[in-house]
Amino acid sequence: MRHLIPLGDPVTNENDKQQQLDRYRVEQGDRLTTDQGVRVEDTDNSLAVGDRGPTLLEDFHFREKVMRFDHERIPERVVHARGSGAYGFFQVHESLEEYTCADFLTDPSLRTPVFVRFSTVAGSRGSADTVRDVRGFATKFYTREGNYDLVGNNIPVFFIQDAVKFPDFVHAVKPEPHNEIPQAQSAHDTFWDFVQLQPETMHMVMWLMSDRALPRSFRMMQGFGVHTFRFVNAEGRGTFVKFHWKPVLGTHSLVWDEVLRIQGNDPDFNRRDLWEAIERGDHPEYELGVQLVPESEEHSFDFDLLDPTKIIPEEDVPVRPIGRLTLDRNPDNFFAETEQIAFCTGNVVPGIDFTNDPLLQGRNFSYLDTQLLRLGGPNFMQIPINRPVAPVHNDQRDGFHQDAIHQSRTSYTKNSISEGCPMSGVLSGRMEGVFRHYTERVEGEKIRRRSPSFEDHYSQAALFWNSMSDWEKRHITEAFLFELGHVERRYIKENVVGHLAHVDGDLAAEVARGLGLPEPQAVRTDHGKASPALSQANAPRESIATRKIAILVADDTDADQVAAVRRELQARGAVCETLASHEGTVGPLDVDRRLGAAASVLYDAVLLAAGDELTGDGHAVHFVREAFKHGKAIGALGAGRALLEAAALPDRQGVVGPDDEGFTQRFADAVAVHRHYDREVAGFSA
Ligand code: HDD
Fold first, then answer.
1. pLDDT, tens digit (0-9, with 9 covering 90-100), for 601-613
2. Is the beta carbon of 158 within 6 A of some atom in ligand 1?
3. Sheet strand arrangement including 593-594
4. 20 to 30 Å CA-CA from 389: which of 114, 288, 479, 567?
5. Domain 542-679, architecture per CATH
């Protein structure tokens, strides 16, 4: 049975989003009924004339059941169709009232409930998680002053500068129209055709070709608001702001070959990882940071703050941590919550406002518009996941799926019959909690033209490239070779390489060589600048918290030794699984998975504790060699020495043997490094 809360009911603290949702939860119940509450006698046989006769149209249970089934799917999101979500809360460290009057950013005692949805962009709802793609990072804050949506990505810039290009861009990256190939991939002609004709894509394309597009986990990726937004304080003073989410676990990626193999082994890899971490109590955490720019400094950069293809280098304007997001609860029902959540960049609260970034301005129209189709009409904000905890009072009425039974005799303002209610949001002249648009002077001619201040498409692409470590540069180069290798039209490849020549001559030359194209003339944007904060090589690598370690065991395993090492790794936060040639037990050890049903790509590191029994097992030896190929830490204990030898690894970087002193510490250090990329140089390329 469904219970509705009247739309006007105020809900004012973090637990109340929970209570609000609780009122919509439906128990399974013990008696089958129709949607009208009529008990059903039999749901296995439709009503028919006699034993072999035709089905009767009057079988209202059959018709209702099949009608509901026929309509189970709603249109998937046109982009970001594949996603996973979680509940949590946000808490600001200290009041930001100097810059913003947003209630949830000024009261450190307040825990604001949130729902976050992570997503890929290009693939359809059933596509694999680990594809080369941008990841969405969308957060709905249920604040006391209304819902605030920060709809960002894990890459701080965007492909295009003006929202009117978005349909073109998405049509280009989606499967090609004649044969609907390829799914969830940018490695095809139409995407690269768009790139070659639209050089504003170049900065974002550099990020897309980097390991940022292959996150190890949603819990280990950054998020960005992308646009420059505006904070507004109680006096009405504005400050430009860029938003950054930084994962407490650090920013880590998979390697390309691994990504390809995970797609078959576990297409739900990122989704499962998020779900399982929250179920285990390993709650993902992110610091929210801001870069603040006073209005007086709007024009002090060598790019336009309104251009969404540009970052503000952290070295120029530091990222100030302002609060923490914790995700601590999985949804109860994927469809009701994760699928039906509706984000809209236009959902802002007092203290946060827009800028004239033309991409942001256009987004504000698109998100509201798309929900009308996807969620079936204008009342989608009444779906439990979308309801604000702040009270809602207005005269908007009726339409498809109206849930509220409005009691008022009037639905217009001004009125005298309902004592004038609802009146303006301003109570007795007090402006607190009232959204007032930032007062900005605007003048100019009505034109359809890109601002000349948006013209530079290469400087920051070069900044990104210059900031990369050697292994990151290698991966980017290989990514270009892979992607362009799937392009059929030679002139498209040539033109992309032509753009790369503006970014870096060596990069362009190497890609040209690999593709058998003439070497382009280097026209590098040679500013020589770098931003170390952009490199993942500079991310801290001390913790092994939540890293997944496979422990290979057999009858010759020293169970006590393994148990002791496992305890210590788990005490440091690692997640260990025991793998053997069969399920059940091996001696006193419980087996978590049969080796033959697992793959090394599902783990971050491997601990070999089995010897002779597995040295002749091709799958076990492949498991070790593949983990090594993907740069993972490998440890060998006791009998594991034999398996390590059987794997005949060509290099010892990140490999800890049974004779190494302080085994567990060294192995943990090797796991914390995440990936030993230098092995690639040693001839075992990932
Ligand atoms: Fe968008 C979904 C992020 C540009 C139009 N977008 C969507 C989602 C994210 C982003 C994370 C998924 C939200 C969820 O989980 O439900 N989009 C971005 C970012 C952009 C961006 C960071 C550039 C800075 N988007 C953008 C433009 C347009 C759209 C320029 C249209 C002109 N985006 C949409 C959409 C979607 C969407 C069609 C699909 C489903 C939805 O909105 O709810 O309206």
1. 999 999 999 999 9
2. yes
3. 593-594, 575-580, 548-552, 605-608, 633-636, 655-656
4. 288
5. 3-Layer(aba) Sandwich (3.40)
